[in-house]
């Protein structure tokens, strides 16, 4: 009973310290604020870094987003909370724990470095981070879902059309590789070797016009092709069954019905609901122009993945001998956190570079499969976009 | 166990027997040495057939069996000397650095842009269903696949791979009782996952956590 009372008391104190809607710099440095005290406890190279007193410089998210994440995981984190203490024996509050987990995920620093920075044992850092991942994947999954209403989808389509004119486009799909090193004696190593000779895990993401992840598939080894990852996904199954991308149809001037679709690169098959660029030499001007539009639209997915890796560096670098069952869950949580930052319109997004290189050193794959109907629709769409589709 | 077929003889007799030396007590040493010089190899000392392994060649045995094999035979009279001698050294004689290219070459993994066409993927059922006999010669990998469009968004799968042929089986979910029991055991939670167990308890729609985290 005693420990439960203690938890309640700390919870109350945490709530009292929170500044939910007032992320002003002066208030953050108020002596009653949690961050004021937490930042004083930081040691080592991180403490000497520039702008250390600035919350965003340490966690890459605003205080508003941080507070929201705390509220999201509060119940479960406290329920699962064991005696997490720092090296001085001081019990760690919810804010402390979320801060440590976010620092681990965003910086990608080792457990020992994080432990040194926040004066705690590296096993405590590991324990807190994993607990946070487990809670976030349950509580935060609502932030990563396919649009549930037609109205929501219409907004997405409108934004995509504004990019380079593609009508009725609902998303863009791309694949990236989460790099890792594996023991050379591991007989499974060759399975994880991708075509660029790196050990990696695949992440396939379907992204909307606001760089939000709407559907992800991860966990497949790097040697699995883009095509297979797509075909094995539930998104593929649902769409083939007519349960996805089945809302508004657009009728082109010549009467051609254009269903909802997503765009992808040449590594994906050309399907009635998946538009890919023209390939080969000797393309017509119409086809070249079409490819430019598709590439510009697909850039949205590339930017989203680049930002994901840039912001959550734990999956941006090369992970050292990760547990291959835990890594997909870490990837999922990073994607959820990426979406939360967008949902809350966090200002940190403005400072992020609009880079589109998320898989440097990887060349586009080529999938030769193409659906005959999709050929026709793509031709008509390209003609429509060039203004040459006869009525 | 140690004394089976030749339990009646002592170790010296067995040593002599293996070396082709007569075990009689009235051994004529001079005549024996002359005989050895004439026939440099007795049938007992050459039961070894060099292997023809093109990938990893074992050192060809041309002389007497190594001492380790001899001692093994000495203390395990029932075992076959041939099997022991065929064993390759645990370490490579000329260690090679693990290169991605060598691994890919041996496994015939797709390397080119159009190599995917050769990949055959078969995705069916759960592990333990029919057709498991077909999986002989396949290497098995266990993966956790997350698919957010699927209601059960986290699924453990077995990947069976043989050259360019892949077979995918879903891992049978553990029963709840076992999962809970398992969760009470100590659970490594190092996020790096170094040396962690492969068993991944899937929380199937469980509202409450079933894992009791504990740092070892």
Automatic annotation (TrEMBL), chain A:
The lineage of its organism: Eukaryota, Viridiplantae, Streptophyta, Embryophyta, Tracheophyta. It is found in: Nucleus. One of its GO terms (cellular component) is nucleus. Residues 173-339 form the DDE Tnp4 domain. Belongs to the HARBI1 family. This is Protein ALP1-like. The keyword tRNA-binding does not apply. Its main location: nucleus. InterPro entries: HARBI1-like (IPR045249), HARBI1_dom (IPR027806). One of its GO terms (molecular function) is hydrolase activity. Pfam families: DDE_Tnp_4 (PF13359). The gene is LOC101493091. Its cofactor is a divalent metal cation. Keywords: Hydrolase, Metal-binding, Nuclease, Nucleus.
From TrEMBL, chain B:
The lineage of its organism: Eukaryota, Viridiplantae, Streptophyta, Embryophyta, Tracheophyta. It comes from the Eukaryota. This is Uncharacterized protein LOC101513070.
